[in-house]
Design brief:
Helix content: 25-40%
Order of helices and strands: HEEEHEHHEHEHEHEHEEEEEEEEE
Radius of gyration: 28 Å
Number of helices: 8
Strand order of the largest sheet: 1-2-4-3-5-6-7-8
């Protein structure tokens, strides 16, 4: 009986060993997967999407790049300005705008969605077709060898198709910046004059001479007093006129600059002009872009002081850990206590939720405290390291924030 029983025990032990090994393997695999997920979570990187967009204005699909800022998904209570970059078929134009943001100002790395608009590179249709209008003074076939005439269509595609797509698929503030170089810069300027396409404009080394100095003349005739809201305009030039065949660029540009000297712009409009005589038409771009974006970031912060006349009803909630905490909200207007950290107390909804209903003027900038600045809510929704929270889009009215830690409780 004993001899027959031993193998059975051994088989039971073997089965149990196999089961134990299997459970250990499952546990190790689960931990490995968890560690992989955790390692992915700590790398906050931007995400790049490529769109192929149909358009009623063109007989081809338009390639468009969309770069979302780091932590876009995690910071789901935030809205973003949008930068539109032209000539993105040459990817360095698009990549340079994305790459410069954190090196100019870290706070602005997470303030923008960047959209790159590509132009075709075919023999029968190119960027010249996209950026140039129909000529007013020349035969079309002789004007850039017939590569022209679609500038209005490109503006309409952006205004009526691309911008609505971006605004409905992403969280946007409604504020936009157009960036162009050379003929792309010429297009950016004409899009302002003829379509009011963006709220702000950067034009690096624009060609103002084609079609009998058309761009310069249009800018001189433009009604700057009719600009709604605040506007930033950056114009730059390089040493083009020192290159044979480019001499004609200087007179039109100088005429426009003289016009701006003699005709002050409205106080709501900021004009920045800069020359780069030691650079050529292409090499000036990185330096001019850096200077333009640095000036724009300063301007963008400066207009936060101007609140819209309209007010919007907003419900704000903050999730906390300690049920004993009393929470205050403070910000840049009367209903937010004008930065008094202990004036506007939030209502205790539950042990973990504090809430308040307000009627805000945009842009609303604010922070959370426990009654003084030493207890400021330092990290909110993973991204707010002492930076003001912002509400400036009327498209939503409910906001739920999660407090990661207070400044005095790291």
């Amino acid at each position: 009986m004993i001899d027959l029983f031993i193998p059975k025990i051994q088989r039971i032990k073997a089965d149990r060993l196999l089961l134990l090994l299997f459970l250990i393997f499952i546990n190790i695999t689960a931990k490995a997967q968890k560690n992989v997920a955790s390692s992915q979570d700590i790398y906050y990187t931007s995400s790049d999407t490529t769109l192929m967009m149909h358009s009623k204005y063109f007989g081809f699909q338009r390639k468009v790049f969309v770069e979302l800022p780091p932590l876009y998904k995690e910071s789901d209570q935030h809205s973003y300005d949008v930068i539109y970059v032209f000539d993105a078929q040459n990817k360095p134009y698009f990549d340079m705008v994305n790459g410069l943001k954190p090196f100019i100002d870290m706070q602005f790395e997470q303030r923008f969605i960047v959209v790159g608009i590509c132009s075709p590179q075919k023999q029968n249709y190119s960027r010249q077709d996209d950026f140039l209008p129909f000529p007013q003074t020349k035969n079309r076939d002789k004007f850039y060898n017939g590569h022209c005439g679609h500038a209005d269509s490109l503006s309409l595609f952006i205004k009526n198709e691309l911008m609505p797509y971006i605004d409905t698929h992403y969280r946007t503030t409604g504020r936009t910046l157009g960036i162009g170089h050379s003929l792309g810069a010429s297009f950016v300027l004409e899009s302002m004059v003829n379509h009011e396409l963006f709220t702000d404009y950067i034009a690096i080394s624009p060609n103002m001479t084609f079609d009998s100095n058309r761009v310069a003349k249009e800018l001189e005739q433009y009604d700057y007093s009719g600009v709604k809201g605040h506007r930033f305009l950056f114009l730059s030039d390089a040493g083009e006129e020192r290159i044979k065949g480019w001499e004609s660029w200087k007179p039109a540009r100088e005429e426009l600059y003289q016009y701006y000297k003699n005709h002050p712009l409205p106080s709501s409009m900021v004009l920045k002009r800069k020359s780069y005589p030691d650079f050529n038409h292409m090499s000036c771009y990185p330096t001019a872009l850096h200077d333009a974006m640095a000036s724009y970031f300063q301007y963008r912060d400066s207009i936060d002081q101007f609140l819209n006349k309209e007010s919007y009803k907003v419900h704000i909630e903050l999730k906390i850990d300690n049920p004993k905490d009393e929470v205050y909200i403070t910000g840049n207007q009367d209903v937010l206590g004008n930065w008094n950290p202990q004036k506007i107390k939030m209502k205790k909804v539950s042990d973990t939720i504090r809430a308040i209903d307000l009627e805000l003027h945009y842009p609303a900038l604010f922070k959370f405290t426990r009654g003084n600045w030493d207890t400021e809510g330092y990290i909110v929704n993973d991204v707010n390291e002492g930076i003001n929270l912002r509400i400036e889009s009327p498209k939503r009215s409910n906001y739920q924030y999660v407090l990661d830690y207070w400044a005095d409780r790291p």
